[in-house]
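call fold(seq) -> tokens
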Amino acid sequence: MNKYGALGKLFSEKILPEMKLNADEQLTMLREYLSTSEPFRHCRGKLGGDWLGIGILADPQLNAPEKPFSPTKVLDTLKWRTGQARVLINYLAKLRRDGHDVAYQELRFALAEERFVITGEELPLDKRQPGALLMYQPKRTLDLIRWLQLLNPIAIDNHLGKLTYPYDIKLLEDGIEKPRMSLKWLTEKVMADNPSIQEGLEKFYDSGMRNHRGNFLPSSIVWGEGNKSDSWISPTKGSSAVLCDPLWLRVANRGLSGSSGDILGNWGVACFFPGKTQAEILGAIPRDRQSEVAVWQFNYPLFVNNPTHGYSIGLFPESEHETFRKSLPTYTSSTITNGFGAVILGQRGPSDRAEHPMFDYRLHRHSSEEPDFDKVAMKLHFTWR
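ret:
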């Protein structure tokens, strides 16, 4: 008999009194059970509110005027819904009793929150929508993002020989901030690739560093013709309307700060196009310029109707793609490009297990070990441009 069989046959205490599954096994068991559970289909995301209809018994006026109040109908509905819920509540109790805490938490949140997707669950296509992430000159852009992710502005000043504040010098000497001299080459490369950043920092240093460096840095980082911030998205006149009104992404939500609050990282570095496919995006870019862009394809949940509210995008080394496709298949890109996969992070439900620590820039900056440049994960935040 399959050990992940139907409710009532799951790990009978009389047969397997001491068996406890690891997290992956618990999730496999849970997904298989729920895939054929009619009660779960009816109750999913509804047990956190008044789905049972008890409120209508206390206040008949909650009924719409055109639908006369029927106590019998309400009681019948309540009885049926209670029966559906009882099956799942009993299953929750069994998971808790058996010590399967991961499965217990996942099911509890799935019953209470309609948007919660169980770890490893792949939603059907009719509950998903396409989306595409576009990045221009990806090698250059990824270097810039990693530079912002890995280095505190104090370390950047040190690389450029401009560190003068005693307090900042002491932070490096005491090891509170890491100098990361092994990445000085990256600072030099970013300066060479981005003259406007180098020019802004030089003005900042010439000013005596009395103001925030953000006052001297460019407001946008764009590689393309013209001065408009979206010039590279529509490289030629008459380009398809497919590339209109993208959702811009930047490296930092509120900037990556130094000790004195100086801000870096507010530049738009990529665009997200809800409802668009990779083929549509590439089709809107002249063939001779397609080699200058990277595109990641998503098929993400329909309920993510506004990614700018509470969501972000993580870029991870391609070696991690299988891991993310296994745990978050509905949020992970189906494509890999320039050595990176992508995942939508954010409000998966009451418990956001999608926020993997690898995307925390503080982990890279404060670690005593030198980061592996090629394996650095990055996080991009939605913004308005």
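The chain has two domains: 23-114, 129-383.
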